[in-house]
Give the backbone structure.
Amino acid sequence: MNSFFLKAGTLALVASVSLAGCGGGGTTDLAAANNPNAGTGTAAIASPQPTITGGSANNAPQEPTPTPTPTPTPTPTPTPTPTPTPTPTPTPTPTPTPTPTPTPTPTPVSATCATPSVTLTSGLVDYGKNLRPFSYLAKPAKGARVQDPDFPGTHIVRVTDALADFKANVAMPAYPTTQGWNCNESRFVLYVTGAQSGGKQGWAMFDGKTYAFIKFLPINPPDIEQFYWSHSDPTKLVYIDNRENGGQIIMKMMEINVETGVQTVLHDFMPDVKAQGWPTTGPVRAGYPFYSGGDLELWGLGAGGIPNVSGQLGLNAFGFNAKTGKVTRYSGIPVAQARGTTPFPLKSGKGWAWPDWANHTTVVFDLNGNIVRTVQFDAIEHLDSSVNAKGEDLLVGTQYDGPSGSGNLMVANLATGAVSTVIGTSKGDGYPRTSTLISSGAWKVPGWVAMGVTGSPYGSTADNGSNNAPVANPQTYIDQEISIANVDTGVVFRVAHHRSTGHYSNAPVNNYWAQTNVTPSPSGTRILVQSDWGNANPKSPVINPNAPVDTYVIELPAYKPN
């Protein structure tokens, strides 16, 4: 492998992305990356000095014209009045130069991926389907840790102030299927976008203990969500670099040590693409941004340079094993796929799955690229790949009139073909709320997932529906809530209100960036989520598509800062 250090300026590119409404990535895909020199320094503004006004040097009273007098009688010569010694003008005390606030030292990264052993449900309350109050909560200041008034035991910490920190409008977890945290939870990565003039944007790394910003990472993934933390090395992050350098097309899988900045080439896809007889213009990338199979081992990728498919970026699809270098072609499906239908790896590393949009089903492949089974689950919706406590591969997501029913949280077992409902119409939960996102990023506690729902900013009705206008006494069930659920047992714990309103489906203008990209930590004890905080006052929500979007950490009672 060739190791080298990328100079900070070599990847200073302008980020540009247009995202599809139903998932990460976009029909117009990310063409370039961030400014790796970005920082958070705020320019000091000198206060204007006061204008001092004073008198003229000639403004003393003038002596009057003397009146003539007779010849004076001589008088004794008076004793002269001594001239007083002038008081010296005091030297002004200089204004002291303020000592700059030191940049906090990042928490050192442990060499292992160990995290404290906890009981995830410790301190949580099972509220069942009962409506919860939706109380007033002012937007916290950056760094403030507040208790959720409606879910005792849960704390919310505001991590960013995008406008003040970066002169940008958005700082958010990239996507629920993206593992935002490293393996020991000492670091996490957010995506900053919507930069104003002179602002910053790109992939920003934060301290997982103090939540302080550390630096922007000099990476160039093919889409904003396509970066991947190692499950065994807390300093290791992988992405695929696609760019042109001096007339040469580059399509390489890269590893970066996020602490030192050293980058290593893991694999060059150019020989593979040439061997298949495909265009060599790139990019090589994943379709939907699922985590790899195993620990950065099995990948579902595609090579571009072909016409669009179904209105999306076209890719020649292939499976790739990063340990062996093996390229696998899938049998029974066209090689040319849309970005959104490119097969993705199973979390177990035992094969791939293909979203068959035409038939609203999911097709499972083995490691040789052969079809194993078809599952009655529509993989066109928001979902994530997962494994249960047995190690069986799953898809967890929302279904709207799918082949196996409707629900906010439904589970397809890709090992057996069975589809079950955790939250849905068959469980008496009403029709699924819109803008539901689900993540299985808590990979150290298999079977547990996190769910964030925008639904209605006005809360829920007593019959498990949603309000469509403000009410005097707002309450919620599913709408505006963050939950965790165990897909093996079916237990659900509702843990917080996220208060983001901009992605309300009935709003005149819908803000993609304000959706709930819930991203749990590997232990599941903390959840990253963005919010525009339009529901500070749930009796009168503010739905503003231009409101700044910041990231918050939901701390469950089981999380114990150390």
About this structure: The longest helix spans residues 270-276. The longest strand covers residues 298-309. The two ends are 38 Å apart (CA to CA). Residues 166 and 200 are 5 Å apart (CA to CA).
